[in-house]
Amino acid sequence: MTFHIITLFPHAFDSYLGESILKRAIEDKKIRVKFYNPRDFTKDKHKRIDRAPYGGGPGMVIQALPVIRAIEKALASAKRKTQNAKRPEKTLHATRYTLHVPVVWLSPSGKQFTNERGMKYAKQSDLIIICGRYEGIDARVKKAFKVEEISAGPFVLTGGELPAMLMIDVISRQVPGVLGDFNSREESRVASPDVYTRPEVFEYKGKKLRVPKILLSGHHSKIDEWKLKRKK
After folding, report:
1. How far apart are CA 37 and CA 7, in angstroms?
2. Interhelix angle 161-172/20-27, nearest 10 degrees
3. Residue 62 CB burial class (10 angstroms; 0-12, 13-18, ≥19)
C-alpha cells in the first residue's frame, strides 16, 4: 500500500516513520510513504504558497493551485504503479482502486477517524492525505477533487502532520505482514486494556502489588471473560 502525503513539512514524519514497526514495514516494502510538498509545485520564484485570506481575518491561507498540482502528481504516481503491475490477474483489481484513490482532507470539522475507517482504507492500494497548515487550504481544492474530510479528534492542531501519522499507523496495522503476527492486533482478539508480566508480585512503598489471580489460573475461558469485563 502507498500513502501519498501532501505536506509543507515532510521531514516532520522522519522520526516516527524511522522507528520500530513502521520502519520495518517500509524496509520490507509492505507499505510505502511518498511526499509531495506544495512548494515544489508553485511558479513563484521564492516558493511562496501562502496569501492573506479573502474576507479578512488573521493568519495566512495555502493557495489552491500548488496543492492541486501536488494531488495530480500523486494520482499520476498511483496510475503508473498500476500500469507497471507485473501480475495481469491483479491489474483490473488495482485499476479499480487507482480510478477511485481516496483523497483525505484532514480537518477538525471532518468525520471522526476510527479503526473501522482505517480498515476500509487498508483495502486500497493507494491513499492520498492532505495536511493543512496556517489558517488552512483554499477550499477550492475540494471543488477540483472529491475529498473525504476526516478529523483525528475533537481538537485543533497546528497542522495535519500528526493526524496523518496517526492514520498511517492505524491503517498500516491492517496490512498483512506489517505486524509480526497478524492476529496480534488487539481489535481482532479478546484483549484487556490492562496487561501484566513478571514478577508476579513486587513491593512499592510498603505495598505489595500483585498480578490478578485469574491470569495465573490457566483457565482460558475465564481469563477471556475477565478481559472482556475490563474492556467495558
Report:
1. 5
2. 70
3. buried
Euclidean distance between CA atoms 62 and 196, whole angstroms: 48
- In a 3-state reduction of DSSP, which class is residue 139? coil
pLDDT tens, position by position, 108-137 = 999 999 999 999 999 999 999 999 999 999
Determine the topology of domain 2-182 in CATH. Answer: Alpha/beta knot (3.40.1280)
Q: Where are the domains of the chain?
A: 2-182, 190-231
Distance, in Å, from the CA atom of 96 to the CA atom of 98, rounded to the nearest integer, reads 6
- Torsion angle of the four alpha carbons 170, 171, 177, 181, in this order, in degrees rounded to the nearest 10: 40
Q: Give the gyration radius of the chain's Cα atoms.
A: 22
Mean pLDDT of the 82-92 span: 56
Grid coordinates given for 82: 498500476
Q: How many Cβ atoms are within 10 Å of 164's Cβ, its own excluded?
A: 25
